[in-house]
Amino acid sequence: MNRFLAIFFFIICIGNPLASNSEELKLGFVSTDKVFRESAPALKALKALEKEFAPREQSIKKLGKQVRDMQAKLEKESMTMSESQVRKREQEIAKINREFKREQREFREDLNMRRNEELSVVLQIANKVIEEIAEAEKFDLILQEAVYRSPRIDITDKVIKALADK
């Protein structure tokens, strides 16, 4: 909805003959993807997430290795085992594999949810910085999403630099 309003405002300003007779319209663009990849608050948040989720990730990797080791051992020993022993081992492996996949899925879901929470905070901070820049430099409109934008209106690096000071 916000994107629609921004585009609508942009079209009205461009198409308004009164706007062209007065001052020139000052536009800016900020790449939120680049802000999320390169800004200090985003990098700090991602490092915190890595630290927060590292123990769970190690646990899941250990469980995956256990499943692979059990499968390899079963393949080696299956010729010397009875059919019922093979089935019992296969059931054990299947049970651990289901647990492994469940934990993997839950890990991804939790990580994505936390990443979205952290990036939401970064976006709020970035939006405040963008507003400060817009007011200080008298921008009429700053967009955060666009199909095409000219490099001359891209103020992303300026926003990233300002975020480093926050």
* DSSP strand tally: 2
Q: Average pLDDT value?
A: 89
Going by helix content, strand content and strand pairing, the class is: mainly alpha
Give the ordered list of helices and strands: HHEHHHEH
Largest sheet: 2 strands, parallel
CATH superfamily, please?
Skp domain
Which value, in Å, is the CA radius of gyration? 27 Å
Report the CATH architecture: 2-Layer Sandwich
Measured as a percent range, the helix fraction is over 70%
Low-confidence stretches: none
Tally of helical segments: 6
End-to-end Cα distance: 29 Å
Shape: rod-shaped
CATH class: Alpha Beta
Oligomerization: single chain
Name the beta content range: under 5%
Would you spell out the secondary-structure blueprint of this structure?
Elements: H1 2-15, H2 17-21, E1 27-29, H3 32-38, H4 40-77, H5 83-136, E2 141-143, H6 156-164
Parallel strand pairs: 1-2
Structure description:
This protein is mainly alpha-helical and 166 residues long. The protein has one domain: Protein Binding, DinI Protein, Chain A (2-Layer Sandwich). The protein is 77% helix and 4% strand. It is built from 6 helices and 2 strands. The protein has a two-stranded parallel sheet. Helix 5 (83-136) packs across helix 6.
